[in-house]
């Protein structure tokens, strides 16, 4: 099968798709034949650049402004998808939020900063799945972008609020994988490393880890491979339903499968 047609006819929504890994995933999905809805919250110009890249490879799409930390915005985003397409195949939960605004160690982070991390991560994913899963067709895909060192290690203390929310997000994937299995919908958490995106570049230069180098291109490849796996039809009921993988490594770290 031609790689450009692997996802032909599929409809994808990528939150935080205006830049960084989100943009890369959106464009790679388009290269595989999917139509792509690009979510953004502030930088409409960057979102339009992503959309132009999607269209340049022959795919269709549109942009949606929505702050995923606001449940009403997520509901409106789902409404726009319903209005444009009436259904969905792929939901990539990628939006990061204002990471630099709540980078604080455990004993320093304020309640307001903790709530901000919760709103843009765990709650945003909960509302997103609640609003979008009724639109997802049988054999669809849900992927949540996480970060392995942050969700499973505690060495980088300022990542406390985000890391603990990412760990919770991965746990949610396990529950959703079981809940949506009867419809053949797989739910996966994919762990990315640091990239040169604006949200991370200010501290990436100061702190590099084994997960920091060369992860963006490889990470996008692994996400899209997971999304197109068994894309020709509904997911086999015996296939793994939930896996956590590292974008920085060519190997999966299996957490749970049924």
Write the layout of secondary structure elements.
Blueprint: E1 11-14, H1 20-31, E2 35-40, H2 44-56, E3 61-65, H3 71-84, E4 88-93, H4 111-120, H5 122-132, E5 136-146, H6 148-152, H7 160-180, E6 186-191, H8 198-204, H9 215-228, E7 242-246, E8 252-256
Parallel strand pairs: 1-2, 1-4, 2-3, 4-5, 5-6, 6-7
Antiparallel strand pairs: 7-8
Explained architecture:
With 258 residues, the chain is α/β, with parallel strands linked by helices. It has a single domain, classed as Rossmann fold, CATH 3.40.50.720. 41% of the residues lie in helices and 19% in strands. The protein has helices at residues 20-31, 44-56, 71-84, 111-120, 122-132, 148-152, 160-180, 198-204, 215-228; strands spanning 11-14, 35-40, 61-65, 88-93, 136-146, 186-191, 242-246, 252-256. The chain has an eight-stranded mixed beta sheet with strand order 3-2-1-4-5-6-7-8, with helices on both faces. Helix 1 (20-31) packs parallel to helix 2 (44-56), helix 1 packs across helix 9 and helix 3 (71-84) runs parallel beside helix 5. The longest helix has 21 residues, at 160-180. The radius of gyration is 17 Å and the shape is globular.
**Total helical segments:** 9
User: End-to-end span in angstroms?
Assistant: 29 Å
Based on DSSP secondary structure assignment, what is the total number of beta strands?
8
What string gives the helices and strands in order? EHEHEHEHHEHHEHHEE
The level of helicity is: 40-55%
Q: Strand-residue fraction?
A: 15-25%
The major β-sheet equals: 8 strands, mixed
Overall average residue pLDDT: 81
Derived from helix and strand composition plus strand pairing, the structural class reads alpha/beta
CATH superfamily heading: NAD(P)-binding Rossmann-like Domain
The unreliable regions are 201-218, 232-258
- Shape descriptor: globular
Taking Cα atoms only, what radius of gyration do you get, to the nearest Å?
17 Å
Main-sheet strand order equals: 3-2-1-4-5-6-7-8
CATH fold name, please? Rossmann fold
Number of domains: 1
CATH class descriptor = Alpha Beta
CATH architecture: 3-Layer(aba) Sandwich
